Amino acid sequence: MAKRVRLLDVAKAAGVSQGTASNAFGKPDLVRKEVRERILEVAKELGYRGPHVMARMLRTGKAGALGVVFPDNLEYAFSDPVAIELLRGVGRECARQAVNMMIISAENPEQAITAINNAAVDAFLVHCYSDDNDIISAIQRRNQPLVCIDTDIAGAAGTVVLDDFAGAQMAAQHLIDCGARKFAILSLQANKAENFGPMNAKRRGAVSHRVVRERLGGYHAALKKAGIAIEDIVHIECENMSSHSAEMVETMLRDHPEIDGILAMSDVIAIGALDGARAAGRKIPDDLKVIGFDGIAEGERTDPPLSSIRQDSVEKGRLAAEMALGEAESDSRVLETSLLVRGSTR
Amino acid sequence: MAKRVRLLDVAKAAGVSQGTASNAFGKPDLVRKEVRERILEVAKELGYRGPHVMARMLRTGKAGALGVVFPDNLEYAFSDPVAIELLRGVGRECARQAVNMMIISAENPEQAITAINNAAVDAFLVHCYSDDNDIISAIQRRNQPLVCIDTDIAGAAGTVVLDDFAGAQMAAQHLIDCGARKFAILSLQANKAENFGPMNAKRRGAVSHRVVRERLGGYHAALKKAGIAIEDIVHIECENMSSHSAEMVETMLRDHPEIDGILAMSDVIAIGALDGARAAGRKIPDDLKVIGFDGIAEGERTDPPLSSIRQDSVEKGRLAAEMALGEAESDSRVLETSLLVRGSTR
DNA sequence: GTGCAATAATGAATCGATTCAATGAATGCA
DNA sequence: TGCATTCATTGAATCGATTCATTATTGCAC
């Protein structure tokens, strides 16, 4: 293979200094028009392909890219509807700022750390639930701006979270207003260690995932206020997959026929719950009210359409990107939620 | 800000050559254990953050990333279910090969070209419909492996496409088998220039998007064989959005009450068609059969569930990534489709 | 014609690693 | 003891740009 044509070669051939040749490409207004044109012409003749990206990066220190990390589960980034909305928002802001989007990919945590160390980016965005994490430390070691989404980590440059507590409270209050009295909570995974199924008090007390902790707190607060004892609530921890929650709910409803209100921590789980309830012979919303969390588009098409707590995940991603790229005003934002009433509670 | 600690600083402090220090990090087995440990220790003391990514890239010429470009519409990449599956596949392969995934982001074609020129990647993957494209040229100018998905472009290192013709043929044949005789085809955008609505013969003759050309050809072939004249088919070009196709279909069904079979070039369009047909008072599948294309998961939950031509978009993305990263056997692959019969044609 | 400012161009230093031919030391074998 | 071989280390060259202090040129006003 022929040796790559360098800027220096172009400069020599055009009879100008390397500095001028560089400016002809990067800062055209610093070079006299005719000189610049000659340089570009010579460049074309020699087959120069434009400034070498890596060399420029090394010199300028700018990568022109934002790193996006999903430590908990990487396949999840392109599967979960909420994660996808998040990515859409990140992409939107990156496009606005003319910065590329580097998705850190890995099959396991160890690989992820290597991937992080090899990524030429200017800042990191990390979406995760747990806050104790080798991956987070690896990012922090790079000493670049880091914005955390959905969790608050000490030392992060910024944080974007939801007011999960208030949202959950709203959800539970809504079910109470609809007349439900016997509740089941379908929780997202609460800890690093998987432990799906009924959730005992001990595990409820040791929730390391911020989102789960807050939402659980919000549910409990509203229910308590309505005079419902926490011990009377059925807690189940579900994988964030409709098929999984469907199974769980079907079983659960057979064991606890009295349940008339289901609080699901995600719409994906809630959609499965609708299926499970149908399989267990319940009529929704007559026998049983179900409310999800997130307000994803799929919730419009379920049978019946799913009530939920709407969050703006696109904006969440966009905002986080904006922060990471250093254009945001504050370094910590809490987004609000709103109640979305549809057929599953009406 | 204190000056960054360089490898050279570490080497000096540890009393070894820079080469040895480099090896201590990059090729540990070339350095005696005690020496390596001392180097690492000194590095930690000095606050050395590990080899500088950009410097390494410049020297080695490897970026450790795969560029992914969506020239037609960038927001689309995180909106369309099929594009997302594609990304999932790409992500899977990238993870397997320990390579990051650089999503080229831009708001307009001009910006996209800059973004491409600024991206430190080892290869490119491009998903697009049209084959004449400034963006493609920009990528080709970089002289790196380029794999095209869903279109075949001269000079690409590889191509991954679907047997769209056969799939479309299968779809049309299925509707014929179900007894439909009066057809409407809901096409994806056929050309760079947007022109949604009824599609005249002239526009049908000048389809620049390969996918549309092939699928249209497949539909026509099957219908012709069944003795249906092309002129009797209603052609409508839709935006790939359910809400848009719903409107189009509702209007279309009022103008053409005889239609009893709808061939949609995507499931997204088909799902809108179900809504539009319902709004126009049709019963599916009794009055009207509808079949989509792609076989996306959402099709299971529509009312009625959507028949479709299934394609494995995840595998399409994975395979393309594999090719681009240079591990695939061949440089051109055509994937097969299969018929997915559900409620909308039964 | 002189002085001053503005504009162009120069060329060497720099960004921070990796690589590789050369050298030195240590080991194995006859 | 001598020679070949292996293992560890060195140090300079290299990857390919950008930057910036300096010099050269031009234009303009008085």
From TrEMBL, chains A, B:
<keyword id="KW-0238">DNA-binding</keyword>
<feature type="domain" description="HTH lacI-type">
    <location>
        <begin position="5"/>
        <end position="60"/>
    </location>
</feature>
<dbReference type="Pfam" id="PF00356">
    <property type="entry name" value="LacI"/>
</dbReference>
<dbReference type="InterPro" id="IPR000843">
    <property type="entry name" value="HTH_LacI"/>
</dbReference>
<dbReference type="GO" id="GO:0000976">
    <property type="term" value="F:transcription cis-regulatory region binding"/>
</dbReference>
<dbReference type="Pfam" id="PF13377">
    <property type="entry name" value="Peripla_BP_3"/>
</dbReference>
<keyword id="KW-0805">Transcription regulation</keyword>
<dbReference type="InterPro" id="IPR046335">
    <property type="entry name" value="LacI/GalR-like_sensor"/>
</dbReference>
<dbReference type="GO" id="GO:0003700">
    <property type="term" value="F:DNA-binding transcription factor activity"/>
</dbReference>
<keyword id="KW-0804">Transcription</keyword>
<dbReference type="InterPro" id="IPR028082">
    <property type="entry name" value="Peripla_BP_I"/>
</dbReference>
<dbReference type="InterPro" id="IPR010982">
    <property type="entry name" value="Lambda_DNA-bd_dom_sf"/>
</dbReference>
<protein>
    <submittedName>
        <fullName>Transcriptional regulator</fullName>
    </submittedName>
</protein>
